[in-house]
Specification:
By secondary structure, the chain is α+β, with helices and mostly antiparallel strands. The chain has one domain. The protein is built from one helix and four strands; from the N terminus they run E-E-E-E-H. The chain has a four-stranded mixed beta sheet with strand order 2-3-1-4. A hairpin with a 2-residue loop joins strand 2 and strand 3. The protein is globular, with a radius of gyration of 12 Å.
Length: about 70
Amino acid sequence: MASQIAFVCVAKRHEAAKDSRGAVTIHQGLWAFCAGSSARDDHDWQPTGGVTLEQLLARRIVLHEAATRV
């Protein structure tokens, strides 16, 4: 069973550049993902409801592709 990512950072200042892979960290004792490469503490954590890292990355790709089409 894949580990669940409980939080995702939605801070605009942490939006990933095309070459950023993001990072998994711990927030409130649970796995959390930030798409930016920043290790600073100024994250804006939002609960995910429990998704896998693969689901988050797939959603990130879809959202990025949609944004570049606009």
